[in-house]
Amino acid sequence: MNRPDPFWTSAPVQAAVRAGDFGRAVRLARERQGRTQAELAAAAGYSRSTVSRVETGAHATLDLGRLRAVADVLDMPEDVFGALFGLEIRSTVTVVSQEAAVPGGDDPMRRRTLLTAGLTVGGLVVPAGLLSRLDETLLLMPDLDGPASPRLVAARLAAARARWDQGAVPELLVELPDLLALAHRTADERGGPEDLAAAAGAYDLAAETLDKVGAAAPSQLAADRAVGFAERSGDAVAAAWAARARCVVLRHQGRTPLAQRIMLRAAAQVERTGLRTGAERGAYAQMLATCAYTAAQDGKGDDAVALLDEAAQAARGLPAVALAGRRTPISAAQVRLYLVGVQWALGDAGAALAAARPLRASMFSTPERRARMHTDTARALVLGGRHEAAVTHLLAAHRHAPAEVNGRSAIRREATRLVRDHRGVAGARELAGVLGDVRSV
Predict the structure, then answer these.
(1) pTM
(2) pLDDT tier at 91, thresholds 50, 70, 90
(3) C-beta of residue 387 within 8 angstroms of C-beta of residue 422
């Protein structure tokens, strides 16, 4: 049996791992082998400038295959490669690209087995091993059994977005690894703008899903992949959505000024298209709304309200229901829901509740958005001290999409505090039952 190379557990390498500095680890390994950047590049099949970008940390837009190829030339162990990105690699995976073998496809017994072997992530019970499988897919390019297929990518991406709209997070986690592997491989092999944009869309959906369940490190990596593919595609809409995925990650890291700059740049990039299509207008309106919420979290209330006014104007005339395979559209009701979140972030309970008052679940086209309306209203009610009404809205949210209460860590924490501190209000016991592990209620 081959013994592990002690170099990879040495102090300098471990310091790079703790810092998440992939480029430093590459440089240390290259220098240890006595290679120049040009020699490493030739062995990996890339240019010296690519290796230079890796070592200086400017590799966010490089596809994962290039990073893995460089690591393989240096005999970097898989667990070290994963740890450098804040993830854990347990085993390699093989993804089958045939439609009949899609996890959770037409095999109800397999889906039932996957969905009942659970673990808890951010309070949401999800299938055991699904997050590790996603980690592996993000870091190790799985083998595909069958040819790359744009048609299959489009079908799976549409199905995955439908899962998102339904709030079906466990099922979505089942399907994301195969989608990512297929979309990534198709983009690499074909390289057309539509293939690259589809891969960006798959990765930004993964980033949002992982962020929702509180898996911060893989969410950031997925957002970086989305940005890389979107930039290569030259598609302004794809680039905007990928930037939004990165913005959400940064916002949850408390880096709101940087997130705000990224979103404003994305909005400007979409605006330069002339906003001739519904997809461009919708993306532009969504970028402005996301900018508004980010500004509010940075304490810039006037900017946030002004941005929402612009978003409302941009959303006028857009269809209220998404076309097949498209993202959930932004509408006047959705912009108003952002206003609820903006006022909540600014700490103004009265303004938040005034914004929420006209909203009804029927104004939103998907269960996920209907649940989001209730959870955002519940947060405003908690801020205003109306605890019983907040419980009612959280229970309503759970009826529309359970993952919006159980899966979103911020909402789950709010709900847990609510039932612990106000156990006597109507509905508290039912909400405690929904949450599942709230004690002494």
Answers:
(1) 0.71
(2) very low
(3) yes
Residue 169's nearest CA partner among 6, 352, 412 is 412
| pLDDT confidence of residue 123 | 42
How far from each other are the two terminal CA atoms of the chain, in whole angstroms? 55
The answer on pLDDT for 240 being more than 60 is yes
Mean of pLDDT over the chain: 82
At which residue do the structure tokens 């995925």 appear? 245
- Of 349, 339, 412, the C-alpha closest to 375 is 412
